[in-house]
Design goal:
alpha/beta, Spore Coat Polysaccharide Biosynthesis Protein SpsA, Chain A, 2 domains, eight-stranded mixed β-sheet, globular
C-alpha cells in the first residue's frame, strides 16, 4: 500500500521548500509513491523552488490548476498513483513517520482521518484549540490538521466539491462523519498561526465561527466565500 501526498499552493515560497524537505526526512521512500504540489497561479518563487526540488527528488511533481484549493486538490488526486491520498497545507508539518501512522490506521480499517494539531504559537487560546484537536468531536476538525483518505473512498464521495472556494475540507469531513468514517491519529502535526498573527486571534476566530454557523444554517458556497473575502482575505 502506497501514499500519494497532495499539497495545494498559492505563493508559498516561504514554506514549500521547507515542507518538502520535512516530508522526505520524516517518511520512508517505500511508502510514498508521489508528492504532487498543485499550484493555483503563484507569482512568487514557489514554482521555481518546487521544480528545483524535484530534480533531486523525482517523486516530487509540480502541477498547475485553476485557483481554488478544492480544484487544486482534485487535480492532484486525479494524477495520484497511491492507494491512500494525503492532503496537506503548505504551512502544516506532519509528525515523524507520518506515513507509517497513516498506513497503520488504514490497515486497521480506518479509511479516513487526520492528525492532532498544534499551532506554532504560545497564545493560550491557540494552545487550547490545538489540544482539543486530539478528540474526535466534529467541532474540532479543520483542514490545517491535514487529511488522509483511501483513494477508493475519495472517488466514491466524488472528491472535493469544487463549488467551495473555502470550507472544502470541512465539507468532505462532514460527509465522512456522516458515515462514521473518521479517526484522529494522536500524533502532533504543527501548523502555522500566521493568519492569526496577521488578523488577530479573536477577530479571526470570530469570523471562522461565523462561517461555521452560516454553513450550519444553510449558507451557500458563494455566500461563505463572500463573507471570507470581506472579513478575512481583505
Amino acid at each position: 500500500m502506497k501514499i500519494s501526498v497532495v499539497i495545494p499552493i498559492l505563493n508559498e515560497a516561504e514554506n514549500i521548500g521547507k515542507l518538502l524537505q520535512h516530508l522526505i526526512d520524516n517518511s520512508s521512500n517505500e511508502n510514498i509513491v508521489d508528492i504532487f504540489v498543485v499550484d493555483g497561479g503563484s507569482i512568487d518563487q514557489s514554482r521555481e523552488i518546487v521544480n528545483a526540488f524535484s530534480q533531486a527528488q523525482p517523486i516530487v511533481k509540480l502541477l498547475s490548476s485553476e485557483k481554488g484549493r478544492a480544484k487544486q486538490m482534485n487535480t492532484g488526486a486525479q494524477k495520484a498513483a497511491g492507494d491512500v491520498l494525503y492532503f496537506l497545507h503548505a504551512d502544516s508539518f506532519p509528525p515523524k513517520d507520518f506515513d507509517q501512522h497513516i498506513l497503520k490506521a488504514v490497515n486497521n480499517q480506518n479509511l479516513a482521518g487526520c492528525f492532532a494539531m498544534k499551532f506554532d504559537s504560545d497564545h493560550w487560546w491557540l494552545r487550547l484549540a490545538g489540544w482539543l484537536t486530539q478528540f474526535k468531536s466534529r467541532a474540532c476538525r479543520g483542514g490545517d490538521q491535514s487529511q488522509f483518505i483511501s483513494a477508493q473512498l475519495f472517488r466514491e464521495l466524488g472528491g472535493f466539491d469544487e463549488r467551495f472556494t473555502i470550507y472544502e475540507d470541512n465539507d468532505l469531513i462532514n460527509k465522512l462523519y456522516e458515515r462514521d468514517e473518521f479517526v484522529v491519529i494522536k500524533k502532533w502535526l504543527v501548523t502555522s498561526a500566521r493568519r492569526y498573527r496577521s488578523n488577530g486571534v479573536w477577530k479571526l476566530q470570530y469570523h471562522f465561527w461565523t462561517i461555521y454557523v452560516k454553513k450550519w444554517f444553510g449558507a451557500s458556497a458563494e455566500e461563505l466565500y463572500e463573507y471570507y473575502k470581506k472579513n478575512i482575505a481583505s
